[in-house]
Amino acid sequence: MIDLLTIVLFLFSISLHEFSHAFLSDYLGDPTARLAGRKTLNPIAHIDLIGLIAMIMLGFGWARPVPVNPYNLKNPRRDNLFISLAGPASQIILSVILAIIFHAINYFFLPTPALFYISGFIITFIKINLILAFFNLIPFYPLDGYSVVLGLLPHNAAEQWEDTKQYGLILLAMIILLPNKIISLGKIIGLPIQFLFNLLHLPLN
Length: 205
Hints:
Elements: H1 4-27, H2 32-35, H3 49-58, H4 76-108, H5 113-136, H6 144-152, H7 155-162, H8 168-177, H9 185-199
Helix pairs in contact: 1-4, 1-5, 4-5, 4-6, 5-9, 6-7
């Protein structure tokens, strides 16, 4: 089972993720998420009960997806692309801010047990946010990456891409559940996380 601190950080991270979707959706003309009470950082508004239980028991969970009505958007394909990117982007931006704080406190303060625990807390928070960000960028429905690819493709190719929607959950389950030495969830999201940790000069372990 996952420790309490990780669960709390996970809840805050998914709340930021879903809030970002809802905020940009409302900004671009679709009030659906706001009217559903999803334009908030309150974790209660975003919790999926099964996703939370899975997080506690298995270390892997999810939130309720933010509803978006494309008919309220001026440019549905373009705007939905930005809305889909908003969640992962907010978590990457937060991770960069946390990295700056990490380096600042380690530069200005002498090493102490308290500083050690604070630094560990920040690194854990960054890891959780980056894991969620890059996991959601996997291009399988219902993840954000599916809609990102859909918005980037030309119209004809986008129609063909929509045909893959029905296989998204199956492909996602295969990556998560099946052992594979070539393609695995750890490799897919681990490489960009390692790259960002190196870029931000953060300790990965």
